[in-house]
Amino acid sequence: MQARRCTGALLTALAVAGASTGCSSAGASAADISVVASTDVYGAIAEELAAGLPARRVSVTSIIADPAVDPHSYEANPRDELAISRADLILENGGGYDDFVDDLRKASGASARVINAVAVSGRAGEQPLNEHVWYDVATTRTVAARISQFLIAHDPSDAAVLRRNARSFSSALGRLQRIEANIRRKHAGAGAAVTEPVPLYLLEACGLVNRTPAEFSAAVENGTDASPQVLQALLDLFSEHRVQLLAYNEQTSDTQTDQVVAAAKANAVAVVTVTESLPADIAFPAWLGGILRAVEAALS
Description:
There is one protein chain. With 300 residues, the chain is α/β, with parallel strands linked by helices. The protein folds into two domains: 8-174, Nitrogenase molybdenum iron protein domain (Rossmann fold), CATH 3.40.50.1980; 180-299, Nitrogenase molybdenum iron protein domain (Rossmann fold), CATH 3.40.50. It has twelve helices and eight strands. Helix 4 links the parallel strand 3 (89-92) and strand 4. Helix 1 packs across helix 3 and helix 7 (159-187) runs parallel beside helix 12 (284-299).
């Protein structure tokens, strides 16, 4: 399911709001470098890379920062447009996931540097595209490197701190990749089911095989119900013990996904909860590491 595009009426309202606010203090902070991210996933990465700098050196604004909000159905507002218009660096996922960012850029006439995660992942040509590329640790390392390069180029006086942060973040992601490799050595070929393809890159890196009927995940992403036959095919995976875990996106639930979770639990199949945005007060590596540990525990 792709993020909703802004309507023409909203874009007109955004343009008017931008013209009326001018240089007011609303929106992104008036720091030396303003970074605006579509979601707090990318915002958290930028914050870690800028850690330890003076407060006014770098500001990071995440448009979606509430884990209770479904990014797929997010609709932008004038404050988002104002933040985008003042940004020096815009971080977006791309791949149809957060098209509202491109709409806001066009509405505001923003000329900021843009880092598009799907574009730098090398996966843009994959069909079908799984746009949830922040679950691909290699892609996140590339995105982080691009952010660091931008910050160093625009704040050379703090280059030593920024390079140290970049090394630390890269090392943390390297540890996650080693956890994935360890799970892969022990459990390659184990079956897994998902309610949506959100965590598939992580599960694939762990050597797991997704046995979910493609029609079911597509229905959930599109906000529709899967057919009774497709739903039953998924439920049979649990009763026949053909999968060892279910990865469940708790930010998108309906009666069918609730039924799937209940069936997994009834058949003693571990349920690993995932989200599309970060919970409050947790760093990106710690968040993804927690999901990896849950996968490891489920397989053990």
